[in-house]
Amino acid sequence: MAELSRTVRGGRKAFFDDPNADRLLAMLARLLESHWALRERCAVLEKLLVSKGVLGPLELEAFELDAEADAALDAESAELIRDVLGAARNIEP
Amino acid sequence: METRLNHALDLAKSRDSKSRERFVSGLRAYVLLDLAGELREDYEQSVLPQHLKRGGEKPADGPAVHDLLKPSPTFQFYSSLRCATQEMVWNAVLDSVEENSESLNRTAAKLTANAKGSLELDDTLDAPRYADAVDVHLMPGNYSGQEGATLEAGAVYDNGLNVFAFGAMGAQLNDIGWSMAKFLHLKFPDLAPREIVDVGCTIGHNTLPWKSVYPDAKVTGLDLAASCLRYAHARAEAMNVEAHFRQASADCLPFVDNSVDIVFSSMFLHELPTKMIHAYIAEAHRVLRPGGVLLNMELPPNEALEPYDAFYLDWDCYYNNEPFYKGFRDQDYTELTVAGGFERDNFFQGIMPRFTYGTPDEFRAAVAGGGEFDDNTGRLSDQIQWYGFGSVKAGG
Fold first, then answer.
1. Which one, of B288, B99, B134, B115, lies nearest residue B199 by Cα?
2. Biggest alpha carbon distance in chain A?
3. What is the ipTM of this complex?
4. pLDDT single digits (tens) B99-123
5. Which residues of B, range 135-194, sit inside 8 Å of A by Cβ?
6. Distance (Å, whole) CA A37 – CA B21
7. B79/chain A closest Cα distance in angstroms
8. How would you list the strands of the sheet with B288-298, edge to edge?
């Protein structure tokens, strides 16, 4: 398998006063791309499950989580928020 | 819409890769249509009026517009996101090319085993500095490809261009070739070419329509990059079009004097230093038969555009690793052909809609009307108009 470089000779310019803003925007765009790929995968999975008869067409939307699963997702969501937003905690002004 | 290549070199892509390509293509459309609209609005409704209110003079050219816009947050956001998107174009397809490199080479070998066309490489040709000092279009590896790769640079370009174009350059990325060949056919109805050359053809995507428009002609694509030419040869065979590809430099065309009927190039001159452009046009003049035609599809000259539109197109020169782009567009195209040996009175140019997006009658009417420069001339959008210029060799 050929291994192809991802480095651009000649680089590319930054536009904001602080080039970190350019870096963050590039990361955000990549994150959005990755987020989209996950959404598309979920959408394809749902279609597959419906087409195979595993789920009814509206079953996913109508499904009610039980209390235990609901609480577990609350906890996971809170952990994600703390993890992502907490990443900036140690940066000095 | 999934971004598929409509030929046998299409790669087996993972679900994630297909999703990423769809996303990046959509992001390109968002940046070049939506954000580009906001940028123009910001300039016309805020940046320019404020500048004039402060007693500034109305910008006379693209660089003056560029200077005014640099501090604008809208310009900074647009440009930064456009650069990020450009990098994402190539990034989205590099994994697929890597993963498929063995099967791609096998398929290419099969397609070219009993080829209708041909491939002739010249391993004495080194990539000159002007062509390989930076990765043009922020494309890692550039057109010449990376060490050890055979035709992968061509595959990166084909797949990447398909994402980049967001559906605006034809189903097989060949609308420029179709539009220019049809334009020439309408403009010179008595021309019966036997030899057609496409200079700087890369993967031959705009070479192949010439064979469809002029089936009796021998069609040859030339480029410096062996990797692109290998891919171009296999791609032409995959599409069942007889085309020939040769590795050659634009300043040394491998044809004898007075032997070619049409010398064509597309999106090529703006990647060349001025000295090379002069050398290429003089070479085109040398190889053309009397009555033969030179046609270069290109970006319109700065002198024909409003200052804002000139700035908008030159953005690529400043930020997309295309260092010769503005230098070319600042030239007087008539003078370029005259300096190459063509007669001033034989210069012609054309502005036209995309041939494969309308009916032949609509295209014919538009060509007959002559076309006019506007803010969609050369600007990749869903309303793009192509531009071409050239000349006829005297004595035909």
1. B288
2. 56
3. 0.83
4. 999 999 999 999 999 999 999 999 8
5. 135, 138-142, 146, 148-149, 152, 156
6. 9
7. 7
8. B118-120, B244-247, B218-223, B195-199, B260-266, B288-298, B386-392, B348-352
